Amino acid sequence: MARDGAVSVEELLARREPGRSLEAPFYTSREVFDLDMKLIFHRHWIFVAVEAEIPEAGDYVTVEIGTTSVIVVRDDDMNVAAFHNVCRHRGARMLTEPSGVVGKIVCPYHQWTYELDGSLIHAEHMGAGFDRTCHSLKRVNVRSLAGLLYICLADEPPADFDALAEAMTPYLAPHRLAETKVAASIDLIEEGNWKLTMENNRECYHCATNHPELTVSLFEYGFGFAPDDADTDRAAAMEAYERICAEFETRWTREGVPFAEIDRLHGCATGFRTQRLAIDRAGESQTMDTRSACKRLLGSLSEPRLGGLSFWTQPNAWHHLMADHAVTFSAIPLSPDRTLVRTRWLVHRDAVEGVDYDVDNLTEVWRNTNEQDAALVAIGQKGVSSPAYVPGPYSPYTEGLVEKFCAWYVERLSSALSSTSAETAPRAL
């Protein structure tokens, strides 16, 4: 039961007012953070990597989600597999590097050795009666969505990944992400709760004044605007935006690339949204001159002026795919007030650095944007930690997608707590 004067997580969830930000404990409480890790990040499909990071047999990456470490590896049959990074002998962590290449997975403690399919093939001094088949590595659910890799730590993951794949594969397929390579990867620690990271990503209310590099190519109006307070200049800009969007829709139709918005951010376990957006000026890429950063276009694409495909998945990812390159983002909680944001820039696997693309030009927009967002998340965390903070109203025009993220989060956490209520008493904060 809740302590005298304290409020349980269940009570906070029940009294959450739609259209307003969450109460402070959702961003600051260790108890809520632990529940987020257990009931959100250990029960849902989490974006963690791209196939381009493990192109050959034996290539692997390790993923850390709280105290859980996972190996994602390309096995000898060229399939993607995932295992808990825990030896079946005495539990030692086996692979300690973030990425690498192995022929076998060998525990450094007592050299128990596993094939890339997880089967135990060597365990010295265990005796003739020891059955190696009972000690394979523990598998983790893993799915590739057209080259984007998702894992789920639950024994029974949400079944709606197939619905996500059915809807999104036609949008992603022309870019052939499985045939790319990672041109750059940058990790950034944001000094804020993971939900502040995601909320910040789900709106562009802040873009015009905080992201000068991004708004060279990206229209702030693409994420909503209030038409009743537009001055003459803004009204003209919005008219120009609508005209450019119509031009892009004609081009997308001609090129046969899907562009219609799909919004399933709320009401399902694996929430997602996609929409192909117009890019300003040259219209080719999210670069400072809006032209392609890589001469070698992705997949089967032959037209560089295709704008950008925006794709989000709950709870932790967003992606931007253009004709010449793609940028993927994942957010992994580290503590109540620290979040890892990992950004990868993908180009065609045959593109040559220094010939087809320049890394600085390729990464400039999102390197700056990420640093700007990290600063915004940090001041947001400081604000919600103040005794003066109370939930504020979202703009119905520019923050509707923030509301959908929070509604999804409240729904999923409430549902998970309800399903375990017979086992666990309400948690007091």
From TrEMBL:
Keywords: 2Fe-2S, Iron, Iron-sulfur, Metal-binding, Oxidoreductase. Gene3D superfamilies: Naphthalene 1,2-dioxygenase Alpha Subunit, Chain A, domain 1, Rieske [2Fe-2S] iron-sulphur domain. It comes from the Bacteria. Residues 45-151 form the Rieske domain. Coiled coil: none annotated. It holds the Pfam family Rieske. This is (Fe-S)-binding protein. The lineage of its organism: Bacteria, Pseudomonadati, Pseudomonadota, Alphaproteobacteria, Hyphomicrobiales.
